[in-house]
TrEMBL record:
Residues 715-728 have a biased composition (Polar residues). InterPro entries: ARM-type_fold, EVH1_PP4R3, P4R3-like_central_dom, PH-like_dom_sf, PP4R3-like. This is Serine/threonine-protein phosphatase 4 regulatory subunit 3-like central domain-containing protein. Residues 699-800 are annotated as: Disordered. It comes from Cirrhinus molitorella (mud carp). Residues 729-761 have a biased composition (Low complexity).
Amino acid sequence: MSDTRRRVKVYTLNEERQWEDRGTGHVSSSYTETLKGTALTVTAEADGSLLLESKINPNTAYQKQQDTLIVWSEAENYDLALSFQEKAGCDEIWEKICQVQGKDPSVEITQDPIDESEEERFEEMPETGHLVELPPCEPAHLEEIAELVTSVLSSPIRREKLALALVGTGYIKKLLQLFRTCEEADDREGLHHLYEIVRGVLFLNKATLFELMFADDCIMDVVGCLEYDPALLQPKRHREFLTKTAKFKEVIPITDSELRQKIHQTYRVQYIQDIILPTQSVFEENFLSTLSSFIFFNKVEIVSMLQEDEKFLTEVFAQLTDEATEDSKRRELVNFFKEFCAFSQTLQPQNRDAFFKTLASLGILPALEIVMGMDDVQVKAAATDIFSYLVEFSPSMVREFVMQEPQQADDDVLLINVVIKQMICDSDPELGGAVQLMGLLRTLIDPENMLAPSSKTEKSEFLSFFYKYCMHVLTAPLLANTTEEDQDLTEGAAKVNPVCPDNFQTAQLLALILELLTFCVEHHTYHIKNYIMTKDLLRRVLTLMNSKHTFLALCALRFMRRIIGLKDEYYNRYIMKGNLFEPVINALLDNGTRYNLLNSAIIELFEFIKVEDIKSLIAHIVDNFYKALESIEYVQTFKGLKGRYEQEKERQSRGLSRYRRDARSFEDDEDMWLNEDEEEEDVADAGLDKCKSDYGKFMESEKVKESQDKENQPKRTTSGSFKFTFSHSAGAANAANGSKPPPSASSSGAKPAAPPSGQAARTGLVGLVDYPDDEDEEEEEENDDEEEEQSPRKRPRLGS
């Protein structure tokens, strides 16, 4: 079957000296009119496109390696390789190349790779007619052999001639036999020479020599020679490490002897490259490029052989998910998959694609769902690494699996919820695992990788799924640690909401969750807006402005800044109704005259509102908070806000910029929109109580530490004579649920914030400024308001 014989992969060598897979196709050799000669042509298997068209140049050096590889260079720093599926196809094309160049097909290389200058070529010409003459392989001639090997490294032609001589005469095996003799006699001088010889032979960079030296009967002697570095007082014990310390673990016995041999060989060659050989100098950087290629193609072969052995992988998965499997055995199985996935990262995209598709078809995701929920810390960590490889490879594959899971009554079994809970319950004080998992969640919910035409439904379906079944799990710690305002406070006893607990690890976790929610605000328009408003989430987040951890307060502020940055009037009205600038201004005043990041971030928030001229927010801020802010003169931001406010007031008084909207339409739209997903909210609320309970159990172990933190927590002090309280918070929370707010309380020791006055408190206007000449219009609006209050679904006004 010619198609099978001619099936090849095309590789090119990139600038990092790594082979890149250019595609799979079928190769042919025929006369090409455009190139005026016989050319190698590879046609893509998938779509019939042309992957390669390369003229067989009479002067190009082609190399045959490992029976199924043909490698050559077409230009400086542009190397090509054809990897054949069958040896017969490789031999057929090799004969055609040799025929064009007039060479004997038995050779491994068709030409001397001449790349020196004209002068160097001239100097080499007297030697072109014969091979390098090798000294006798005897102890007395070891120094001479070492000098010969070292001397040819600077000349590509002489390197090639020496390699041919070493292969043709069986010289390598003679040298290794001589090594055993010298080691038995403890001939240190001879062993030092053998180190130089073997190292030099490796630097010849020839695949034919590597195949001889890395064979089972030779490789340990090669490692032995490299133990006797003349620069060391005592030889290294590399062979002892490879034979005794390094253990080959078989989680499932590998019956294929060829696969076992290939795994052993690859490990040992990788050890030689990474551990034994010294750091390459600038002048030696290309000496071992063929060694890297040797390892690369071995790895490709190992992955292919494991993928094809479905019986082996099926057995691994069966034992991994079997409840009867011992914990130690399961740990080894998970570590095997972790190493297997890490191994695949060296492969090219097409190879990785086939690799992960094989794992997916065998059920890697259901298996991960089970092992990630186990108590073993090592198993969880390894499973997380495997999950990260899968998410990086194909977020869509993971999303598709998650949405196809049976919708059980308990959301805890969902894979994403298992991941979120592992992030929340990370026992590492630095939350290293939580940071990694947060990054994976961010990738999964990122619409940027859902933009392919076939993924349009994926985006809406997955985000709806995530907000219905998973968002309440993610926000559970945030809601559990931002307490509601006590509604039983007597008048004059209102307090700033406490943050409980406020230890460092909890603060880090809340910061991670806020970072993810901030990402959602930027990228999920409808879903996150609905969630924020129905759960009154921004108010709960702003409670964290009271945290003793400044980085957490900044995360809360950043969340609000992203919301305001959208310049969405729905969000603006929500902020004004809830009086949500109050905690931000309190934080600014408490910070006093300190010039720090918190101060700058808050100033930037108000500067943005001024520069973007967000009229509704400017009017709200000036009407309610300007008395507290007018004393801040080290920046012109607040005076600028006042100036914008006055300008708008003047324009409206002149009738130049008067714009009104039907008082009912905006609120009706908002209420209809907020009530669209009542069913989903009920499901989420039911799950939220359970998540809070689960999180509460996890936090019980932290109670002692938290109580100590509370005792040691410094009291907040007021800077300046103006201090605001959360007098509107309960009302806003109830407003979201459609109930009337309780009377607001004000602190007896602090000046209360002025309530929104005039039209600033009304919901049907954009101008939000009250003027005497608007009395007729106000009467119309009051009538409208009376009609609206009759609706049981209408959210009450905070200013009423």
